[in-house]
Amino acid sequence: MRLHFLGATRTVTGSQYLLETDRARVVVDCGMFQGSPHDVIRNRVPFAYQPGEIDALLLTHAHLDHCGLIPHLSASGFRKPIYGTKGTVDLTRLVLLDSAKLQEEFARSHQRFAERNPDRAAAEDEETAAALTAATKEDPAAATREAQPEAVTGLRAPLYTVDDTNTALGLFHGIDYGAEIQVAPGITATYLDAGHILGSAIIRVRAVEGDQERTIVFSGDLGRPGTPILRDPTPVTNADYLLIESTYGGKTHEPQEEAIRLLGEAVKLTGDAKGVLLMPSFAIGRTQEIVYELDRLLSAGTIPHLPLYLDSPMAQKASDVYRAYLDYFDENARALVTRHDPPIDYPDAIEANSQKESLAIEQAARPLMVVASNGMITGGRIVQHVKALVADPAMTLLFVGYQGDGTLGAQLQQGATQIRIDGQDLEVHCQVRSISGFSAHADEPELLGWLGNFTKKPRTTFIVHGDPDAQAAFEPRVRALGFTTAVPSWRDTVELT
Ligand SMILES: [Zn+2]
Questions:
Q1: Which of 195, 206, 303, 378 fits as disulfide partner to 223, beta carbons 3.0 to 4.6 Å?
Q2: Do domains 2-250+440-495 and 256-434 have the same CATH topology?
Q3: Whether domain 2-250+440-495 has CATH 3.40.50.1980
Q4: What is the Å distance from ligand 1's center to 63 Cα?
Q5: What mean pLDDT do residues 7-19 have?
Q6: What separation in Å is there between the alpha carbon of 107 and the centre of ligand 1?
Q7: Measuring CA to CA, how many Å separate 78 from each of 53, 109, 406?
Q8: Would you kindly state where each structural domain of the chain is located, as residue ranges?
Q9: 441: CA distance to ligand 1 center in Å?
Q10: pLDDT digits (tens, 9 = 90+) for 162-174
C-alpha cells in the first residue's frame, strides 16, 4: 500500500494525494496550484499517474486549490466516480464553471496579445516552456522517462474549457456525512464534518490489501471551532496514518468575539460619517459569514440598519447553496431558521446582479455597506469600487480575510499611499482597517486541540498544506504531543506498512 504526495506539500495549494493498493487506485483531491509562477506551472506538469487507471476521486471540499484540476483530469482520461458531500458537489459546480470561464477568457485575451506582439509572446512562451521542463524534472520518475513538455504553442491554451467541466460534473456523486461507502475494490470512505466551508469534509479511508487493513485520515482543510453557521470539525480518535493541514502553523488568530466587535465598530463609524464601508470578500464562505455576523449585530441592536449591497453573483449563488443545506448548519444557525430568522439574510439587502447595478452602488445614498468579491482585490467587481472610492476619505476599506503577498489587497493593507489600477495611478485617502479573526482555518492551538482527540497515535502524521515556515513551527509542537511526524515533499511516495 502506497501513498503519493502530489500537491499541497510545503505549500498551501494544489492538494492531491494518490492511495494505491494491489487492487485499486484512489485520488484524494485534485486541486489547482495557485500563487507564484513556480507553483502555477505545476498545473501543466503531466499527472503522476495514468488518469484512466484511477478508480475513484474523493473530494474534501469545493475550494479551487482542492478541486480545480478535476476537469483537466477528466479531459485527460479519468471517467470514474467523484465523491463529495452533496453540498460540496453543488458548490464545486459553481467554482469549476467559473474557473473554466476565466481560463477561456484568459486564453482569448492572450491570443489577441500574441497576434499584436508575436515576438514578445513567443519569448514568454519559451520561458514558460523552460519553467515547465524544470518543474517536470522535479519529479524523478518523469525525468527518467524524459517526459516532453507540451508544445510551446499549447502552453497558453486553457487548461480546460466549460465543455470539459460539464463532462467532469457528470461524474460527481453527492454523498451524506457519516456514511461509509465503498469507493473502489477494498477501499471505503467516510466523510466527516470539517467545519471549513459548507460541505467540507475530513475523509476517513479504510483500505485493505491482502490480510492488511489500514485507516488513513485526510484532514482536508480544518475549520475553527465556534465558527458561525457551520458545525465544528469532527473529533477523530484514531488512524493508522494521518495527513493534517498546517496553513496556520505557528499562528494564533484574533478571538472571534474581537473580530465581531471590530466589524460592529466599523459599521457604526460608517453610519456616523455617512460614508461607505467596503468589504472585499471571497464569494464562498466568508461572504456568508460576514452577512451572518452583520445580521446578528443588527438583531442585537449593536449596529444601525445601514443598507447592505451584495455585489457578487457568485456569492449569491453560493448563498443559495448554503440555504439549500440547512441540515449542515450548526445548532445556533438552525435555531434561527426555526424562529424564521434566516441566518444568512440581512434585512433588505440589495443584490447587484448586473454590471450596471454594480456601478450604480457608488451613486447610492450614503451611508451604505458593500460586500464584493474577490477577497484580495485581484479581480471581480471589488476592483471597480476600489478604483472609484479609494481617494474618498469617507470610505472605509475593511479587510475581513487573508491578503496574499503581492496582491492589491496586501498593498493597501500595508498602507500604500498610491496604487495602480488599469494603468491609472490613484492616491489613497480612504481609511483602511483589517480584521484577522475571521478565518476558515483552525489556528495552531486549534489544530493541536483537534489532534488531542486521538486516543491512539497514528504510525505517522504527515504535515501537509502549509508554507515551509508554518510547517517548521508546527512540526515540533505536534511531536511534543507524542506524534511521529513527517513533512513530505512534492511527488514523494511512502509505503504504508
Ligand atoms: Zn479550503
A1: 195
A2: no
A3: no
A4: 5
A5: 94
A6: 26
A7: 7, 29, 35
A8: 2-250+440-495, 256-434
A9: 8
A10: 999 999 999 999 9
Length of the chain: 497
Calculate how far, in angstroms, residue 271's C-alpha sits from the geometric centre of ligand 1.
34
pLDDT band with cut points at 50, 70 and 90 for residue 139: low
Question: For the segment 466-483, what is each residue's pLDDT rounded down to a tens digit?
Answer: 999 999 999 999 999 999
pLDDT tier at 313, thresholds 50, 70, 90: very high
| Selection from 19, 88, 87 nearest residue 60 by Cα | 88
Q: What is the pLDDT of residues 169-199, one digit of tens each?
A: 999 999 999 999 999 999 999 999 999 999 9
pLDDT at 462 over 90: yes
Contact yes or no for 291/333 (Cβ under 8 A): no
Question: What's the 201 CA to ligand 1 centre distance in angstroms?
Answer: 10
Instruction: Give which of 448, 452, 435, 456 is closest to 474, Cα–Cα.
Output: 448
- The cell for 340 is 424564521
Q: Grid cell 475550494 — which residue?
A: 63
**Residue 478 near residue 451 (C-beta atoms within 8 A):** yes
All three cell numbers of 493, joined, read: 511516495
In the structure grid, which three cell numbers stand for residue 379, read together? 479581480
Q: How far is the CA of 255 from the centre of ligand 1 (A)?
A: 20
Residue-wise pLDDT for 368-398, tens only, equals 999 999 899 988 899 999 999 999 999 999 9
Look at the block and give the residue holding cell 440555504: 323
- What local confidence, expressed as pLDDT, does residue 141 receive? 53
Kindly give the distance from the C-alpha atom of residue 61 to the centroid of ligand 1, in angstroms, as a whole number: 7
Q: What was the pLDDT predicted at 147?
A: 43
Q: Are 206 and 228 in contact (CB under 8 A)?
A: no
From CA 353, how far away is CA 356, in angstroms rounded?
A: 8
Stretch 225-253: mean pLDDT, rounded? Answer: 96
Q: Which CATH number fits domain 256-434: 3.30.70.141, 3.30.450.40, 3.40.50.10890, 3.40.50.20?
A: 3.40.50.10890
Distance 244 CA to ligand 1 centre (A): 13
Distance from C-alpha of 55 to C-alpha of 417, rounded to nearest angstrom? 54
Has residue 151 got a pLDDT over 60? Answer: no
